[in-house]
Amino acid sequence: MSEFSFESLFYFLTLAESLHFSEAADKLYITQQALSKRIKQLEKKLGYPLFQRSGRRQELTLAGHQFVDKARALLSELQNIEDHFQGHSLPFSEQKIRIAAPIIPRLPTFLVMKQFIRANLPVCFEYQQELSLQVAESQLLKGQLDCAFYLMPPNSPDLCSQIVDLNRFVMVVQPELAHRSWDEWSLILLNPVFAAYRALYWPSALRHLPVVAEADQDTALHLCELGKGAMYLPESNVFNRLRQNKLVALSSLPFEHYLISYLIWNPEISPDNPASHFIKQVLARV
């Protein structure tokens, strides 16, 4: 049991969910190299490979598929053991931090999550991506959720909210083709995460441009690097590629949009609830 750390299991499950090193590393707020090293260390301990490469994606091996359920069970067991030895008075089932969010803002949220994981606190994060804001508000008021991240504030006056991330959108292209005007490009669209929220930030001017492809983020960015089209997305999603000059952001766009993320919570949440500490830590970093 002691072979596996909370962090290594969490990293494995994150990669198993996304099947892209770049996407998983972004979610964990670590480098791809660091994530790859952790996965290799875990595979070495187990004695068999968990992933195999398939094009630009990763695929779970048969052993990897079997280890997914085991990893989840191990995480629960690790947390139960930590809860027992730390003398925590609340049962394990109440140590989940239940979050609803179509898109979790990387900053500051993942920094706080990483802090919780490194501290080996007896909590786990339960994440729901499919809830509408209306359903999330109802569950927050009933105590069925602890907090939520949405691109708009809540409707209920009984809930609290605060902006925790303001992420500027950029239009990125291959550096060698940056001389072309923004309206000379075809677009590569991101799916499925941003599709439902496109109406909130999609400039009307972009709706007249042709669409050359729709793909997940990893594939879309690869196509963009090849010069197949331009992408319009939050700057944080391409920060490393901009820094490495794999892509450049077009200047002098006739429009400007921001992805605004709100943290939403019920002010009646108990101060003894680990989620209350999590919320305070996120707000402290804003």
Structure description:
The chain is of the alpha/beta class. Among the domains are: 87 residues, Arc Repressor Mutant, subunit A, CATH 1.10.10.10; 96 residues, D-Maltodextrin-Binding Protein, domain 2 (3-Layer(aba) Sandwich), CATH 3.40.190.290. Strands 3, 4, 5, 6, 9, 10 and 11 form a 7-stranded mixed sheet that branches.
Topology:
Elements: H1 6-18, H2 21-28, H3 32-46, E1 51-54, E2 57-60, H4 62-85, E3 96-100, H5 106-118, E4 124-128, H6 133-141, E5 147-150, E6 160-173, E7 187-190, H7 198-201, E8 211-215, H8 217-225, E9 231-234, H9 239-243, E10 248-249, E11 258-265, H10 274-284
Parallel strand pairs: 3-4, 3-5, 7-8
Antiparallel strand pairs: 1-2, 5-11, 6-9, 6-10, 6-11
Helix pairs in contact: 1-2, 1-3, 1-4, 2-3, 5-10
InterPro entries: LysR_HTH_N, LysR_subst-bd, WH-like_DNA-bd_sf, WH_DNA-bd_sf
Family: Belongs to the LysR transcriptional regulatory family.
Keywords: DNA-binding, Transcription, Transcription regulation
Features:
286 residues; Arc Repressor Mutant, subunit A; D-Maltodextrin-Binding Protein, domain 2; seven-stranded mixed β-sheet; 10 helices; transcription cis-regulatory region binding; LysR_HTH_N; DNA-binding transcription factor activity
Helix run count: 10
Q: What separation lies between the terminal Cα atoms?
A: 37 Å
CATH level-1 class of the domain at 165-260: Alpha Beta
At CATH level 2, the architecture of the domain at 165-260 is 3-Layer(aba) Sandwich
Mean pLDDT: 83
